[in-house]
Each structure stands twice: as structure tokens, then as C-alpha cells.
Design a protein that fits this description.
Largest sheet: 7 strands, mixed
Radius of gyration: 14 Å
Order of helices and strands: EEEEEEEEEEE
């Protein structure tokens, strides 16, 4: 059993910064690839950023140059550093593990979501 726990969401002013964390725990052998998605009210869930334990990253065009995804392999934790945030970044952010190798095989997991609100 694997659990993803997100933290770091909240209210931030436009132009400010925020860091989200996602900690994976359980019978983990290795986290292979992971990322962040978001869903704004009335919109579909969209990819924000992904990375692999090898360091290959991918970003949505809307966040390139402003957001940075990183992974701490020793802690099985990944982060989303958000800078120069805009009101349109307001959404529920979900961490996702595309592939986690556990003692029983490979599976995909998603966190419970954390609210990010950008407002003055």
C-alpha cells in the first residue's frame, strides 16, 4: 500500500511564491516518474509538470519559466516550486506518481489534492 500526502497549498498574492510537496510512503522500492496536475473550477484537470527519477522534466506552456519540479529520491518526495504566480494558477493541485515500483509490482497513485488560491 502506498500513500501520497501533499502539503504547502494556501493563499498567495499575485507575483508571490509557493512550494508544494508530495511525500510518498509505504512499501516503495522506487518512484519512477511523478508529477503535478491541477484542476480549476469548471475546467478539466491539466498537466502542470512531470519529472522522472532520472531528471527528465516536462512543463505545461502556461507555467514554463515560473514553476520548477524537483524530486528528492532519498525522501521519496517531490516538489513544485511556484514563482511569479498569477490568478489563473488558482486550482486544486494534485500530485501524481505515474509509476511506483512497490514490493508487489508497479502502480499509479494520486494524492488527495491541495488548494492553491492566487488573490490579492
Amino acid at each position: 500500500q502506498v500513500r501520497l500526502v501533499e502539503s504547502g497549498g494556501g493563499l498567495v498574492q499575485p507575483g508571490g511564491s509557493l512550494r508544494l510537496s508530495c511525500a510518498a510512503s509505504g512499501s516503495i522500492v522506487s518512484v519512477l516518474d511523478m508529477g503535478w496536475y491541477r484542476q480549476a473550477p469548471g475546467k478539466e484537470r491539466e498537466l502542470v509538470a512531470t519529472t522522472t527519477n532520472g531528471g527528465t522534466t516536462k512543463y505545461a506552456d502556461s507555467v514554463k519559466g515560473r514553476f520548477t519540479i524537483s524530486f528528492d529520491n532519498a525522501k521519496n518526495t517531490w516538489y513544485l516550486q511556484m514563482t511569479s504566480v498569477k490568478p489563473e494558477d488558482t486550482a486544486v493541485y494534485y500530485c501524481n506518481a505515474g509509476r511506483i515500483l512497490t514490493t508487489t509490482g508497479i502502480a499509479r497513485y494520486t494524492g488527495q489534492g491541495t488548494q492553491v488560491t492566487v488573490s490579492s
